Every structure is written in C-alpha cells, then in structure tokens.
C-alpha cells in the first residue's frame, strides 16, 4: 500500500505500532476506519489507550490496545517467553486471537482499553527498579578484586529468591494488613539501612539510587508503622492503591 489509508482500506484487521500516540493519530487521519478492527501496539499511557479507544469507536472501529512485553529479538520466536498484553474489545480479541499470537504470546487483561498499557508500565517500572539495584550492586564491587562475571550468578540467584515476595505483598495489599507474618519489619530495615549507606560511602559509590527508597521506609516508620512489611510503602506512593 502506498499509504496508511490504502492499507486500512484493504484489510479488516489493522495493526499499528509507531513512535507514540500522536503518530498513530497522524498516520490514521483521514483513513476509513468504519467496520475495521484496530489494534494499537504503540507504547503509551493508560489514558492514551482509553482516549484512542473512544477515538476509534467514534469512527466506527472496534479497538484493542496492546503492551508489548518482549525485546525485539523475541518477536516471532515462540519459545522466547515474550508476550503482548491486550485490552479493549473482547470480541475483537476472540476473532483475531490466532493472528495476534503470531508475533508473540497473548494475554488479554480486560475490556478497559487502558489496562494493557497499565500492566505494561507497571512491569517496566518494576524492571527499572531491579536494574537500579543491579547497577548499585555492581558499582559497590567495582573497586575490588571481584569479577563481575563471578558476582552475576550470585545476583541472579538472590533476586530470584526475593521475587516471591511479590505474592506476599499482593496478599497483604488485598487484606490491608501489612503486619501479618512479617519476617523483617520496617523498623529493623531502617536501622540496618545505615550500613548500606556507609558501605556506599566507603566504596566511593553514590547512594542516589538507594536513598529515595530508604527515605520512604524512614517516613513510614516515623508515622508509626515500624512493625509493618515494606508493602506499607505502597500507601505512601498512592493511598488509592492500598489500605491505610
């Protein structure tokens, strides 16, 4: 097709993956979307997904928003573990599920067109937290006679062992009780955090990746929640997401 409009005219299923939401609007401006099934895999925010869904509906199209949880080499590789979150029209997803599964696995997360982007960004945010911790850990060992390749397996093993805490955090958020079955409470962790900061100083490493999180722990303890698990920090970030 010589243009996006021609491509849309030739196919019922239209899949878009561009730079940003504004690019999607510009590319499809003037295209005849009535009767089309529009799937937007462009990375965006939940609000953008919802707005684009309304935009598509106004033009007579069914709509799915997508969030790609795969690096480029994983696309088209069935065994890569990569997948795409989809949200929006359940009927559209059911009609085209086999086609949508060609580039990567599929995970439908609901009729709210903003949910795919929300799941995507939430997981990416957690990933960047992990990357920040890894960067700090490698910086700490950097000045010493410790080979990064020897340290990496220890880091992977430790992070893997800690990843199960997500399930416990989910249980606590559901119940609203952050004090049940706590192994290392906030008061204890705040008391020990000084060691982390002193070690960074001794190693000549900036603690700027650690200090925001430690400050949240200190704040929660100061508010009288020292007996809690770290899950209580969610309340400081977003009272809407957690009980008090």
Provide the number of structural domains.
Answer: 2
Tell me the radius of gyration. 23 Å
Termini gap: 56 Å
Q: Give the overall shape.
A: elongated
**Full CATH superfamily name of the largest domain:** NAD(P)-binding Rossmann-like Domain
Strand order of the largest sheet: 1-2-3-4-5
Low-confidence stretches: none
CATH top level of the largest domain is: Alpha Beta
Helix-strand layout with pairing:
Blueprint lengths: L3 H7 L2 E4 L4 H8 L8 E4 L5 H13 L3 E8 L13 E6 L1 H11 L4 E4 L6 H27 L6 H16 L1 H11 L10 H17 L8 H12 L10 H5 L7
Parallel strand pairs: 1-2, 2-3, 4-5
Antiparallel strand pairs: 3-4
Helix pairs in contact: 5-6, 8-9
Question: Quick summary of this structure?
Answer:
By secondary structure, the protein is of the alpha/beta class. Helices cover 52% and strands 11% of the residues. The protein folds into 2 domains: 114 residues, NAD(P)-binding Rossmann-like Domain (Rossmann fold), CATH 3.40.50; 78 residues, N-(1-d-carboxylethyl)-l-norvaline Dehydrogenase, domain 2.
